[in-house]
Design brief:
This protein is of the alpha+beta class. It has two domains: 145 residues, Sandwich (Jelly Rolls); 189 residues, SGNH hydrolase (Rossmann fold), CATH 3.40.50.1110. It is built from ten helices and 18 strands. The longest helix is centred in the C-terminal third of the chain and has 20 residues. The protein is elongated, with a radius of gyration of 21 Å.
């Protein structure tokens, strides 16, 4: 941390990105490389056990990673190194968007005007590319403290539907919108095209403190023909039971494959339809419920998003539009909100 400012000039103060006063959430730690820090949502030392370069690449994208400070600063300064990816960075003041921009690839310094009155300032990093931070600066402030985060912790595992492809910005994915609305502490473990029930992910979910866990599964298994009718159900049971080992009393909601009209009854290379994968997912959950898991809940994706409404939510028959992310947040809310009250 450094401070600057001559007499009569606004005070400017710089922080190491991992400084605890920045109030990070949605991350498990940081990876240092030279002058920069990469916020992590998965432990890097274990991701190799998935034997997937794609999963490792996606896990390094800071979906849901954010930091927040309570301050009266009039300017936020970000010294960062971004990769190409197309997703913007969001800055919110007391929950209201004050700046959204796409960092150019490479090293850059961004200056963001802030209200200059006491407010909770939250920065959501781009969710579709690696963004490394070298330093975080604030100017013109008299007060700075980490934002108190006291809400329930929500771990959301899933596919691109959880990772989010087309939101206006990282703070407007359906998971981010729902978490912001209710003060939940989101940990986004969505991996676009890679929700294959990897054991390493199950262990991370198992070891991550949470008051709510959602597992949005089935779509990738169908699209990539990664499982057969024989292997999918046992894989679901194994993943859920691993998670349950670390969360004996936490509500776990298995969200079984949101609908996709062109895929519901189309047979993939493994002999399954999307509807069939959804049915197998339900069968696996019901087995575990019969075996005594009373905190395990099945959420049929067609109940969350009725098939007749899907075209009005999706951009491409599978991924929500920016407005669709808002719609999906509203549709998912009545299924998830009661689980935390139970």
């Amino acid at each position: 941390m450094t401070g600057t400012g001559q007499a009569g000039e606004p005070r400017e103060q710089w922080f190491d990105p991992a400084d605890e006063r920045l109030g990070w959430d949605g991350v498990c730690g940081f990876e240092r490389a030279g002058e920069t820090v990469l916020p992590l949502r998965m432990p890097r030392e274990r991701i190799a056990t998935a034997l997937s370069d794609d999963l490792a690449r996606l896990a390094a994208m800071p979906a849901g990673a954010r930091f927040a400070v309570r301050t009266d600063a009039d300017r936020l300064l970000l010294d960062l190194a971004a990769e190409a990816g197309g997703a913007p960075l969001d800055v919110l003041a007391d929950g209201v968007l004050v700046d959204r921009r796409r960092p150019q690839p490479g090293r850059a310094r961004l200056a963001v005007a802030l209200p200059g009155v006491l407010a909770d300032i939250e920065v959501w990093l781009p969710h579709l590319s690696r963004t490394r931070l070298a330093a975080v600066g604030l100017r013109g402030h008299r007060l700075l403290e980490p934002v108190a985060r006291t809400g329930p912790r929500w771990t959301a595992y899933g596919s691109s539907l959880t990772h989010a492809m087309f939101p206006h910005g990282p703070s407007e994915s359906w998971t981010a919108l729902l978490a912001r609305r209710h003060g939940w502490r989101l940990r986004n473990l969505g991996f676009a095209g890679q929700a294959y029930l990897d054991p390493v992910v199950a262990r991370v979910v198992r070891d991550t403190p949470a008051e709510l866990i959602t597992l949005e599964i089935g779509t990738n298994a169908y699209l990539r023909s990664a499982f057969t009718a024989r292997t999918w159900g046992p894989a679901v049971c194994g993943f859920v039971e691993t998670v349950r080992d670390g969360h004996p009393d936490t509500p776990i909601a298995v969200i079984a494959a949101l609908p996709s009209a062109e895929r519901e009854h189309a047979v993939n290379a493994a002999g399954l339809t999307l509807a069939g994968v959804r049915e197998l997912t339900g069968a696996a959950v019901r087995v575990l419920q019969r075996l005594g898991d009373r905190r395990l809940h099945l959420v049929d994706g067609r109940d969350v998003l009725p098939l007749a409404e899907a075209d009005g939510v999706y951009a491409d028959g599978l991924h929500p539009t920016p407005a669709g992310e808002h719609r999906l947040a509203g549709l998912a809310e009545p299924f998830l909100l009661p689980l935390l009250a139970a």
